[in-house]
């Protein structure tokens, strides 16, 4: 019996309704090289063969290099207890905890996670999390579009280009007017962002620190957004939130973030964690799950999924989002990491990371031909260095020395081919940074 | 529970038109079907609707549904009580549970008499 029960007649009928001539035409949007060539599953392997094969694949990874890569994903120290706690079967093997019969423990964990990130960002509400920083930003924009019933979205070019690509892809067929405001030497152009906002603007979107590592205070911009009736959206960096002015303090309506820096290991493609927080006035536009605390009939504390009328299983096509899942295990890991590290630990992590980055910038700028893209603006644990030559050339030369020098910005910012985004965390030693500077000087 | 002095829509809203102003709410039958109402999302004063257009939504502990504007015109007043006390829609759907007042632009065409609505409510029961 075929697994997919559509008869050729039914397929034909459906294609006619859609207006596509064939299945191939229906999927034409997907580039041919990404479409499956066939579904021929190879024969089974023995356990030993599988292990050997996976070990060979794993050996292709280089984990011994000295890395200064950041750009939204950061190698902070994670206490060993996080792995131990996460591996507990109650958490690790539980199926999606979204059914009414979800265990109280799972719901409490989500509730505590929400409480922790809402406090970190000084925002009123948080959901259970979404997939990653990019999808969180997209969902935030859609909250603003629904809330304001407007179509124009003003985005700073200094917002992560990866998030902006995600946003453009998701909204491609939604008839939104995405307006990108060019960055100004790695800074957000506040005057241009303000000018771009009008009575049709649903949201203004910025990031702090921005993709170039620059730290800014968006309080005035957000006040102007409020005056025009636009929703202000800030994408943040959780670890640095302990030392930076928070989204809440700046008056942001929605704050999102990539949650990876809160204890999630770096890996190609995740799974990561999208953090979403907002002011209470917008909570009904929030997508996804929200766990709430309540009392049962006997007066005991209990936890429930709350405000579910926003969601797909009740609201159907009118739901706030088609997301009906979260990264429960990743959110739990962020919570465990936050609890183990604590406020003091997180603050020291942030301060040490920033100190290291400033030391690295100082060392690199001692080399005569190297400058910072913006010498006036403050930066956190990441900065943009400009070389007299293509940054890719430097990166390639240093790979041979076992160093990943940073992220060459030319890939996303034409005209900045000589710029390199360099990141430090508390895990870098002074000797490691000294070595980076020596090898860069040699490569020039 | 179908007052004689009101007009009704197929989507279970009622309208009371007096002096060019329509007061709009949902019927007793509708609130009964929804159960305990937890939230009413209403448009802002000044919004203009065509009859039959979606004007907001209503949520209960077990369901959520859209509200449709039974007449064409501009919203002139929104019940300020419902934000904090949506249960008024359950307790008094034709009185304290009213939702919006609209300055009527056109004569209503698609609305039903109490007798016609009674049949629809009976059929859906």
Structure explained in plain terms:
- The complex is a heterodimer of chains A (444) and B (125).
- With 444 residues, chain A is α/β, with parallel strands linked by helices.
- Chain A has 3 domains: 8-54, no CATH class; 66-75 and 344-443, Aspartate Aminotransferase, domain 1, CATH 3.90.1150.10; 81-335, Type I PLP-dependent aspartate aminotransferase-like (Major domain) (Aspartate Aminotransferase, domain 2, 3-Layer(aba) Sandwich).
- Chain A is 38% helix and 14% strand.
- Chain A is built from 15 helices and 15 strands.
- Chain A has helices at 8-18, 23-26, 47-58, 81-86, 89-92, 104-121, 133-148, 161-170, 190-196, 219-228, 247-250, 312-315, 328-365, 391-399, 430-443; strands at 66-67, 125-126, 152-156, 177-181, 201-208, 231-236, 254-258, 274-278, 291-295, 301-305, 371-372, 382-386, 403-404, 407-408, 419-423.
- In chain A, the strands form 4 sheets. Chain A has a 7-stranded mixed beta sheet, with helices on both faces.
- In chain A, strand 9 and strand 10 form a beta hairpin.
- In chain A, helix 6 (104-121) runs parallel beside helix 13 (328-365), helix 7 (133-148) packs across helix 8 and helix 14 packs across helix 15 (430-443).
- Chain A is globular and about 70 Å long.
- Chain B has 125 residues and is an alpha+beta fold.
- Chain B has a single domain (7-124), classed as OB fold (Dihydrolipoamide Acetyltransferase, E2P) (Beta Barrel), CATH 2.40.50.
- The model of chain B has no long low-confidence stretch (mean pLDDT 93).
- A 6-stranded antiparallel beta sheet of chain B has the order 1-2-3-9-8-5. A 3-stranded antiparallel beta sheet of chain B has the order 4-6-7, with no helix packed on it.
- In chain B, a hairpin with a 3-residue loop joins strand 6 and strand 7 (64-68).
- In chain B, 18% of the residues lie in helices and 35% in strands.
- Chain B contains 3 helices and 9 strands; from the N terminus they run E-E-E-H-E-E-E-E-E-H-E-H.
- At the A-B interface, loops of A face strand 4 and strand 6 of B.
- Chain B: This is Glycine cleavage system h protein.
- Chain B: Keywords: Lipoyl.
């Amino acid at each position: 019996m075929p697994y997919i029960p559509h008869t050729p007649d039914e397929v034909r009928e459906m294609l006619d309704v859609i207006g596509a001539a064939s299945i191939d035409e229906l999927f034409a949007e997907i580039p041919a090289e990404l479409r499956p060539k066939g579904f021929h599953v190879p024969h089974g392997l023995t356990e030993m063969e599988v292990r050997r094969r996976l070990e060979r694949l794993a050996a292709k990874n280089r984990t011994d290099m000295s890395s200064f890569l950041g750009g939204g994903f950061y190698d902070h120290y994670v206490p060993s207890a996080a792995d131990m706690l996460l591996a507990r079967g109650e958490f690790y093997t539980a199926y999606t905890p979204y059914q009414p019969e979800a265990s109280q423990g799972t719901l409490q964990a989500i509730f505590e996670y929400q409480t922790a990130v809402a406090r970190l960002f000084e925002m009123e509400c948080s959901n259970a999390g979404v997939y990653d920083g990019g999808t969180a930003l997209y969902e935030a924009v859609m909250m603003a579009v629904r809330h304001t019933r407007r179509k124009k979205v003003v985005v700073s070019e200094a917002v992560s280009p990866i998030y902006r690509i995600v946003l453009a892809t998701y909204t491609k067929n939604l008839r939104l007017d995405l307006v990108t405001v060019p960055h100004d030497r790695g800074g957000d152009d506040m005057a241009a962002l303000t000018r771009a906002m009008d009575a049709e603007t649903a949201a203004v979107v910025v990031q702090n620190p921005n993709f170039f590592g620059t730290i800014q205070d968006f309080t005035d911009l957000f006040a102007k957004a409020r005056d025009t009736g636009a929703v202000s959206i800030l994408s943040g960096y959780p670890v640095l939130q302990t030392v930076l002015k928070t989204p809440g303090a700046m008056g942001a309506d929605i704050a999102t973030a990539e949650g990876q820096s809160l204890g999630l290991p770096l890996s190609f493609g995740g799974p990561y964690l999208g953090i979403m927080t907002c002011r209470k006035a917008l909570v009904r536009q929030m997508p996804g799950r929200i766990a709430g605390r309540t009392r049962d009939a006997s007066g005991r504390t209990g936890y429930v999924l709350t405000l579910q009328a926003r969601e797909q299983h009740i609201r159907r096509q009118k739901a706030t989002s088609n997301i009906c899942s979260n990264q429960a295990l990743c959110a739990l890991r962020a919570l465990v990491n936050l609890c183990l590290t604590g406020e003091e630990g997180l603050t020291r992590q942030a301060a040490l990371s920033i100190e290291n980055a400033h030391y690295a910038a100082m060392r690199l700028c001692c080399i005569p031909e190297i400058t910072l893209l913006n010498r006036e603006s403050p930066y956190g644990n990441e900065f943009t260095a400009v070389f007299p030559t293509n940054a890719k050339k430097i990166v390639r030369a240093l790979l041979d020395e076992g160093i990943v020098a940073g992220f060459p910005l030319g890939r996303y910012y034409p005209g900045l081919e000589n710029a390199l985004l360099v990141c430090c965390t508390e895990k870098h030693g002074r000797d490691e940074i000294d070595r980076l500077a020596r090898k860069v000087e040699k490569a020039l | 529970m179908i007052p004689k002095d009101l007009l009704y829509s197929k989507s279970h809203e009622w309208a009371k038109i007096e002096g060019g102003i329509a007061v709009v709410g949902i019927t007793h039958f509708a609130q009964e079907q929804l159960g305990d109402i937890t939230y009413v999302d209403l448009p802002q004063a000044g919004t203009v609707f065509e009859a039959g257009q979606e004007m907001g939504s209503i949520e209960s502990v077990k369901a959520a549904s859209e509200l449709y504007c039974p007449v064409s015109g501009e919203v002139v007043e929104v019940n300020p009580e419902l934000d904090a006390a949506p249960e008024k829609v359950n307790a008094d759907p034709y009185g304290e549970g009213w939702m919006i007042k609209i300055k009527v632009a056109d004569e209503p065409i698609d609305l039903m008499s109490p007798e016609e609505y009674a049949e629809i409510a009976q059929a859906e029961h």
